[in-house]
């Protein structure tokens, strides 16, 4: 799943939000747990996120995966792994759909983050939390909303007892990598890929 902060603001992370905390407010945007009423909007935003990652080399299809994205968002609501950023008013400096502003039926959702605790067939020496997706609408970027969403996910995962938080970013997405580095993330595992048409070298 793609992860893209869509927010290059360099300020420190704000106070986290979770089901048991008061919502956070960042520049007229409230960061709070998502509900089932937000699922369809989150699925639409996920499609934008995935489509934007195409320019960075992702193989993940966008619109074709919308049903799966909606299912994942609904599961995240049930597990407490969805936090949304909700705007109380339109961005005064932007207008229209091209600015990425919330439309009717979106309930003001301008960004979201999904997260959870990793599980697999092998035992680990740490409990790992994972941030699966992070996205902010274009008209609300560069104002700290992405940082608020990330902080909310990290806080909720810490409350669940994780030792570390992991996430993925496309190697070519330098803005995303810089964003996460500013928030304390370091490279942990490198994924390598090679086409099977012989473009790569087989020699040592």
Automatic annotation (TrEMBL):
Record-linked Pfam families: Acetyltransf_1
Gene3D superfamilies per the UniProt record, alphabetical: 3.40.630.30
Keyword Glycoprotein: no
Region span, Disordered: 1-37
The N-acetyltransferase domain, residue ranges: 29-204
The entry's keywords: Acyltransferase, Transferase
Domain of life per record: Archaea
Enzyme class per UniProt: transferase
Enzyme Commission code(s) on record: 2.3.1.-
Claim: Transferase is one of the keywords in the record: yes
GO molecular function: acyltransferase activity
InterPro entries: Acyl_CoA_acyltransferase (IPR016181), Bact_Acetyltransf (IPR050832), GNAT_dom (IPR000182)
Protein name per UniProt: GNAT family N-acetyltransferase
Organism: Halobaculum halobium
Taxonomic path: Archaea, Methanobacteriati, Methanobacteriota, Stenosarchaea group, Halobacteria
């Amino acid at each position: 799943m793609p992860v893209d902060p869509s927010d290059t603001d360099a300020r420190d992370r704000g106070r986290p939000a979770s089901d048991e905390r008061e919502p956070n407010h960042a520049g007229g945007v409230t960061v709070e747990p998502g509900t089932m009423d937000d699922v369809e909007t989150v699925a639409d935003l996920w499609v934008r996120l995935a489509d934007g990652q195409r320019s960075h080399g992702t193989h993940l299809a966008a619109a074709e995966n919308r049903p799966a994205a909606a299912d994942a968002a609904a599961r995240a609501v049930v597990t407490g792994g969805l936090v949304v950023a909700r705007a109380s008013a339109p961005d005064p400096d932007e207008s229209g759909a091209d600015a990425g502003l919330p439309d009717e039926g979106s309930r003001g959702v301008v960004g979201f983050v999904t997260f959870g605790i990793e599980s697999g067939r092998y035992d680990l020496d740490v409990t790992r939390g994972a941030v699966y997706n992070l996205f902010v609408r274009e008209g609300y970027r560069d104002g700290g909303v992405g940082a608020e969403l990330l902080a909310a996910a990290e806080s909720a995962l810490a409350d669940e007892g994780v030792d570390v938080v992991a996430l993925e970013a496309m190697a070519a997405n330098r803005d995303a990598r810089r964003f996460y580095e500013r928030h304390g993330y370091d490279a942990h595992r490198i994924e390598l890929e090679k086409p099977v048409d012989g473009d790569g070298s087989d020699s040592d």
